[in-house]
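ok, trying the design again with the full structure, not the truncated one.
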């Protein structure tokens, strides 16, 4: 150990750890420790705090700058050191920077899953500490770990191939993790949450790159496979996850805890791709998700989503995001079970089956989104918006929905017992099938009004079910469609369902059809001697090409057919 001012040799040992610790111990009022380029191998761990151990560090000295010559200064765990490299406990104002930390995981016989995790840099308690420009790699447990600290900054580090997490912060407040490269982990790239003792406050995870969270060698056997995890070990109040790039992840790109209650979260302007699920939101409230780009989402497990929102989330807004190419079988762009959430002004393009699904959720607003090409990447019937299960009192408005295959896909599906929903002022493009009320009398009081139908090849809006409840009503302007919507029968017995007319529709004998939508002109061709009656009036035989006008509530009944089946054309007024 040399005095940098005088050049005097103050302490000598063949044990690098002893020299560095002696230097720290002599800086009782703080100071600077510079470690020249070279490889320093540590074989003992004298720094003990709680159940943690480290080769060098302090449990009492504040105001220390510990640094080297970048990657050329290598602090390495010796064979079976089975401890951390740098460990500090309860200290303030440490600045650790420009060091390479090698955990030498291949030569440690401790699994790193017990009370002594094998960590590159380990900080417990304390405040105002900074870790910057370090290369931390090959640790058996975590690259950097911090517990219950205040005003901590982890900045611009390169954290590679650590068996559990790249970075873990648990508890504490005012923590900034910024500009780091995390490449290679099994459980989590960057984990920030509370601890068993306290909720964490004011956390920021910003401008980091996280990749290759798929090593599959977790010392805990969990193999979580998450890029960024908020609320991992405890609850969080006020966290911002912004500007990160997350890719090549074996499960969720960004995940918020399903166990602990997180409040006031902002997840903004992140890029997530090549993961199983892009974004998963768990328990909590007051969450804003905006400006994120999520793409190339795939899992062999059917029915996963680009974005999943839990039923334990509340007061959530999901706006201005882009989701593309969810190729999971039966995959979703967004599946939302959160009551009263707002999904607005997003772009969702190229999902395997569903664009946006409200799943047993009430009061969701789905507005101003552009949904294109559900079913583009699969052989499924695609749906732009799906009101699933008991989802009720939802508003689906001002969306633009363009289908991939108008012969099989639906713009909007209302199913199970979903009721009392408002479907209004949407635009349906390339739409062979616009709205499917799927479960008849169990879907009640859905209002379908003011939608603009821009169909392909003369196809029209369908509200499809032979037993549809009569109080599912609405009137929709048709844009450039001349043969839009008709309330008719199912082909056997009476009916009030709305079916595709195209330019004509072949009717069934002895069936009463009811106009429930708007005034309509009916022109009858190839009558073949069939008789009809209007509003149960006298039967008569129309001439070929004769036109009749029906108004909402009117009925038309075709009696037994003669030599041919009548064909009719419908034009709404």
């Amino acid at each position: 150990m040399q005095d940098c001012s005088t050049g005097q040799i103050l302490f000598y040992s063949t044990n690098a750890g002893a020299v560095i610790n002696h230097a720290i111990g002599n800086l009782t009022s703080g100071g600077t420790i510079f470690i020249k380029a070279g490889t320093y191998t540590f074989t003992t761990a004298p720094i003990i705090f709680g159940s943690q151990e480290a080769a060098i560090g302090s449990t009492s000295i504040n105001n220390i700058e510990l640094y080297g010559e970048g990657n050329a200064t290598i602090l390495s765990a010796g064979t079976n050191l089975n401890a951390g490299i740098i460990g500090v406990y309860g200290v303030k104002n440490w600045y650790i920077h420009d060091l390479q930390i090698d955990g030498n995981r291949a030569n440690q016989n401790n699994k790193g899953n017990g009370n002594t995790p094998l960590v590159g840099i380990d900080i417990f308690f304390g405040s105002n500490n900074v870790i910057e420009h370090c290369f931390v790699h090959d640790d058996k447990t975590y690259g950097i770990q911090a517990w219950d600290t205040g005003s901590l900054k982890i900045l611009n580090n390169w954290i590679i191939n650590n068996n559990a997490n790249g970075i873990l912060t648990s508890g504490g407040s005012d923590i900034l993790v910024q500009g780091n490269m995390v490449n290679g982990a099994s459980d989590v790239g960057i984990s920030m949450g509370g601890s068993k003792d306290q909720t964490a406050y004011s956390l920021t995870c910003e401008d980091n790159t996280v990749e290759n969270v798929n090593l599959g060698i977790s010392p805990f056997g969990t193999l979580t496979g998450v890029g960024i995890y908020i609320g991992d070990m405890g609850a969080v109040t006020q966290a911002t996850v912004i500007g990160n790039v997350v890719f090549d992840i074996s499960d969720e790109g960004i995940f918020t805890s399903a166990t602990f209650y997180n409040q006031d979260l902002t997840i903004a302007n992140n890029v997530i791709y090549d993961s199983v699920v892009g974004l998963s939101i768990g328990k909590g409230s007051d969450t804003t998700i905006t400006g994120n780009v999520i793409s190339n989402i795939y899992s062999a497990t059917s029915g996963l989503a680009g974005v999943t929102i839990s039923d334990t989330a509340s007061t959530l807004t999901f706006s201005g995001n882009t989701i593309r190419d969810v190729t999971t079988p039966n995959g979703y762009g967004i599946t939302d079970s959160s009551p009263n959430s707002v999904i607005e002004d997003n772009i969702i393009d190229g999902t395997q089956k569903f664009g946006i699904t409200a799943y047993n959720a009430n009061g969701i607003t789905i507005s101003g989104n552009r949904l294109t090409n559900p079913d583009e990447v699969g052989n499924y019937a695609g749906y732009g918006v799906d009101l699933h299960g008991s989802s009720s009192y939802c508003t689906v408005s001002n969306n633009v929905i363009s289908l991939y295959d108008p012969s099989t896909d639906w713009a909007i599906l209302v199913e199970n017992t979903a009721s009392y929903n408002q479907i209004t002022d949407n635009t349906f493009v390339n739409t062979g099938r616009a709205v499917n009320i799927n479960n008849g009398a169990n879907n009640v009081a859905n209002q379908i009004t003011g939608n603009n139908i821009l169909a392909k090849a003369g196809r029209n809006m369908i509200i499809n079910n032979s037993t549809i409840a009569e109080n599912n009503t609405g009137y929709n302007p048709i844009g450039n469609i001349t043969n839009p919507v008709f309330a008719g029968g199912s082909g056997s017995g009476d009916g009030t369902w709305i079916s595709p007319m195209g330019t004509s529709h072949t009717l069934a004998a002895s069936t009463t059809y009811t106009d429930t939508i708007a005034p309509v002109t009916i022109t009858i061709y190839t009558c073949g001697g069939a008789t009809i009656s209007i509003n149960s009036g006298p039967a008569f035989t129309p001439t070929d090409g004769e036109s009749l006008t029906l108004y909402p509530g009117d009925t038309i009944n075709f009696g037994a057919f003669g030599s041919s089946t009548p064909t009719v054309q419908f034009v709404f007024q």
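Keeping the full-length input from now on. The two ends are 95 Å apart (CA to CA).
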